[in-house]
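Work Package 3 (structural annotation) set out to generate three-dimensional models for the target panel prioritized at the project kickoff. During this period the team completed the workflow that converts sequence records into discrete structure tokens, so that structures can be stored uniformly alongside our sequence database. As a representative example, we reproduce one entry of 316 residues exactly as it appears in the project archive.
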Amino acid sequence: MLLVSPILRHGTASMVFFAVASRAYTLVNNFNSANWMSSFQVQSIPDPTGGFVTYLTQAEAEADGLYKVEGNQVYFGVDSTHVISPTGPGRNSVRLQSNAAYNNALIIGDFAHMPGSDCGIWPAFWVVGPNWPSGGEIDIIEGVNIGVQDQMTLHTSLGCTVKVGTQGQTGTSTGDPNCGDGGGYNGCAVVDYVGTSYGTAFNSVGGGVYATLWNASVIEIWYWARGQVPADVTAGTPNPANWGSPAADFSGCLFDTYFKNMNIIFDTTFCGSWAGAVWAQSYCATVDASCTDYVARNPQAYADGYWLVNSVKVYQ
């Protein structure tokens, strides 16, 4: 997730990658409905991206039905029932951070639903290290407003310049390859133009699975729609060497220097430094001139503004 504050934060190399990718991975954490609430902290904090949002405490979120276990799935979402003041603190939402932090890992998230593509909304699933941007940030799922493509972005301190790795990628690199430019705020991004990679389109096919691998040589992100998930992933014996080109293949940086002690984060904010910043250039401006006015006065627009998680598994 793109940040506006550093607080709490949107030849040889290829041989190393293949040696790592083809080895057996060991499951170190399986976050699911049985252990989710003891594995993640609910963060009731001011939004670091300047969003029009109020992040609730766990007690508040559970009381409002915005954070709960439903059968074998975990639900967390945003308020979609109350008209609020456009000059107030913002729409209620839930922000989560894992208790555990990781160095070099394979994270596989299985999602039945993510927040839909709605004007004003800005959901993200990402990992971040301490002392942003020094600890690094990998945005795995992120988008704004009525977008239907996922944007995968790295944010770092100065010096991490990336290129497409030897695996190639199905996504399209955009913007600056120096992930630390602009104080880390700019980031280096890849957009996945697969039509079901994000938002409402993702939900329309029953969700899917994202896998993120990072080690000293590469950071790679794969996406599969429901029904296209590799058998080894489903079986719990993931082997990235079998998966073909990822959606994003970042290479060329000493990643262990720039990505450390990464926590998993989910959040859904509104407006702010991305969704709000591009509002005037989007279709949403034809609906309402103001992002915050629209979000405040149209709670029903966010009835699908929720995550429904089957599991997040971490392998090393």
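The CA atoms of residues 85 and 108 lie 38 Å apart.
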